[in-house]
Design a protein that fits this description.
Elements lengths: L21 H4 L16 H8 L32 H11 L1 H22 L5 H10 L2 H12 L9 H19 L9
Length: 181
């Protein structure tokens, strides 16, 4: 949308977590208001109509009817925790929340660099998005504490990482499978 720009592109206007979005990480999307991309967004238009609020939660009308059914499906994983992410950003402050997202991104980069067999990128991205930071730290520490794993073929390293992430997800009751609308 012409004229819609934002200073912060790691966390969208509506509360989607762009910092860990695979489209953003892959360079396919500049993030909300960061340039070419989903510029025809109705929520962006609404922001402009409401004085250019940087986050919908700053608007006195939030949550408005635009959000009815907004998070019903999560084939685009940032929808799964959007409400929780908004609550965390409001409670902790945006900078603290973004710092946690950056640490999660670093952990994702670690998983992808050492354990991606070409088939685990979506699983790793989903797990990093959905699991708490302390669980992710624990998974990376557990992988690092197995020096013999570094000598194994990539498929075995990928399987070890996937099993640890699944175990962490199971202990939290988190499904790493995406739900379609």
């Amino acid at each position: 949308m012409k004229g819609f720009t934002r200073a912060e592109t790691r966390f969208s206007l509506c509360g989607l977590n762009c910092a860990l979005c695979s489209m953003h990480l892959g360079g396919y999307c500049p993030g909300c208001g960061g340039g070419a991309g989903n510029q025809s967004c109705a929520i962006a238009k609404c922001s402009l109509e409401h004085g250019g609020v940087q986050f919908c939660w700053e608007c006195p009308d939030y949550p408005c009817p635009r959000y009815e059914g907004f998070d019903d499906g999560d084939s685009f994983v940032p929808h799964r925790n959007r409400t929780q992410d908004v609550a965390n950003a409001r409670e902790q402050g945006l900078e603290a929340h973004l710092a946690q997202l950056e640490e999660k991104r670093t952990l994702l980069d670690t998983l992808l660099a050492g354990h991606n067999d070409g088939r685990r990128k979506t699983l790793f991205n989903t797990a990093v998005y959905l699991l708490p930071l302390e669980d992710l730290r624990g998974v990376v520490i557990a992988l690092d504490s197995q020096p013999e794993l570094a000598e194994k073929p990539i498929k075995e390293r990928a399987l070890a990482a996937a099993q640890l992430l699944q175990k962490a997800a199971d202990s939290r009751g988190v499904s790493l499978k995406l739900n379609k609308k």
